[in-house]
Design brief:
three-stranded antiparallel sheet; 6 helices; single chain; elongated
Length: about 325
C-alpha cells in the first residue's frame, strides 16, 4: 500500500469522524432548542392564565364598584328627600305659627281701632230691619195704588178707538171744524194728564214781545195766536197748533224727506191707517197712550211702540212691531 492510499484513507476517516461529530452536535442543539421552546410555551400559557385571572378579578371589582356607587346614589337620594320633607314640614309649622301670630295681632289691632263699633253695627242693623218692615208695608200700599192706576189706564185705553175715529174725521174735515175739535181734544188730553190751565199751559192768547207789543208773521203780517202754549219748569214754552190737517202733514213729510217720526198714539194710528205708503219715511214711533193692535204688513215703514208703564219709560223703552201683534207689549 502506497502513501497516497494511506493519506486518502486517513482523510476519509477524518471526514467520517467530522460528520459523526456534526450529527451528534446537531441532535443535542435541536434537543436544547426544543426544550427552550417548550419552556417558552409553558411560560406563555402561565402568562395567559395569569392575565385571564387578572381580567376576571378586574371585572368583578368593576361590578362591585358600580353596585357600591348605585347603593350610594340611592342612599343619598333618600337622604335628600327626607331632608326636603323635614324642611317642608318645618317651614309649614313656621308659616302656620306666623299666620296665627299675625291673625291675633290683626284681631287685637281691629278691636283697638273699632272700639264700640260692634254696638253701632247692631244698632244700625236694628234700624235697617225696622226700615225694611216699614218699606214692606209701604210697598203693599204702592202695589194697591199701581193696580188702581193700571185699571184706570185700561179704561182709558178702551176709549182710544172712539177718540181716534173722531180725531180722524176732524183731521180730514174743514179747517174750522179741525181747529175746534183739535183744541177740544188737546185740552182734554192736557187736563187728563193733570196739567192746570193758566199755570202749566195757556190757550188762545196773542204772542207779545218782551215790551208787550203784539208779534206778527213776517211773511203774512198776521198776528201770532197759537192754540196752546205748554210751560216747562225750565221756563221753556212749547207752542202747539191743533189746526194742521193730517194730509198736510203727510205732504210735508214727503217733501222734507222725513225718515223718522214721533207721534202721539191717536194721531199715529190714524196716520198709518190713511197713509201706509210714504216716500221717505222709514220709522214711525208712537207713544203717550197704549197702542192698539195694528197690522204692519202693508206699511212701507216700520212702526215702533214707545209707550211705557210710567212717564219716564215713554220714548225710552221701545218695541218694534214687524208683524201682527194682538196685544202689543209696552
Amino acid at each position: 500500500m502506497n502513501t497516497l492510499t494511506v493519506v486518502i484513507a486517513a482523510f476519509a476517516l477524518l471526514l467520517v469522524a467530522l460528520v459523526i461529530i456534526w450529527i451528534v452536535t446537531s441532535s443535542n442543539a435541536r434537543a436544547r432548542f426544543n426544550a427552550a421552546i417548550s419552556a417558552k410555551d409553558a411560560e406563555i400559557i402561565r402568562s395567559e392564565s395569569a392575565a385571564e385571572g387578572a381580567r376576571a378579578l378586574l371585572e368583578s371589582e368593576r361590578a362591585l364598584h358600580a353596585k357600591a356607587l348605585e347603593e350610594l346614589r340611592t342612599s343619598q337620594e333618600k337622604a335628600i328627600e327626607a331632608a326636603r320633607t323635614a324642611l317642608a314640614l318645618e317651614n309649614e309649622k313656621t308659616l302656620k305659627a306666623r299666620e296665627e301670630s299675625l291673625r291675633k295681632e290683626a284681631a287685637e289691632t281691629m278691636k283697638t281701632l273699632t272700639g264700640g263699633l260692634d254696638k253701632d253695627i247692631l244698632a244700625m242693623k236694628q234700624a235697617f230691619d225696622a226700615q225694611r218692615q216699614a218699606h214692606t208695608e209701604g210697598t203693599t200700599s204702592i202695589r194697591t195704588q199701581f193696580e188702581e192706576t193700571v185699571k184706570n189706564l185700561r179704561q182709558q185705553t178702551e176709549s182710544i178707538g172712539s177718540k181716534a175715529e173722531n180725531l180722524a174725521n176732524a183731521l180730514k174735515g174743514k179747517n174750522k171744524m179741525q181747529g175746534i175739535f183739535g183744541e177740544t181734544v188737546l185740552e182734554n188730553i192736557l187736563k187728563e194728564e193733570g196739567l192746570r190751565p193758566g199755570h202749566d199751559y195757556d190757550s188762545e192768547f196773542w204772542l207779545r214781545d218782551k215790551d208787550g207789543n203784539l208779534l206778527e208773521n213776517e211773511e203774512t203780517g198776521r198776528r201770532l195766536r197759537p192754540d196752546f202754549a205748554l210751560h216747562f219748569p225750565d221756563d221753556t214754552d212749547v207752542l202747539i197748533d191743533s189746526k194742521v190737517s193730517l194730509s198736510a202733514l203727510a205732504d210735508y213729510f214727503d217733501e222734507a224727506g222725513i225718515t223718522a217720526l214721533l207721534l202721539t198714539t191717536q194721531v199715529g194710528v190714524q196716520f198709518l191707517l190713511n197713509y201706509p205708503n210714504m216716500k221717505t219715511l222709514r220709522m214711525l214711533v208712537m207713544g203717550g197712550e197704549k197702542l192698539p193692535a195694528v197690522d204692519p204688513s202693508s206699511l212701507s215703514y216700520t212702526i215702533v211702540n214707545g209707550y211705557g208703564p210710567t212717564e219716564n219709560c215713554c220714548g225710552v223703552s221701545l218695541f218694534p212691531i214687524p208683524e201682527w201683534e194682538p196685544n202689543i207689549p209696552i
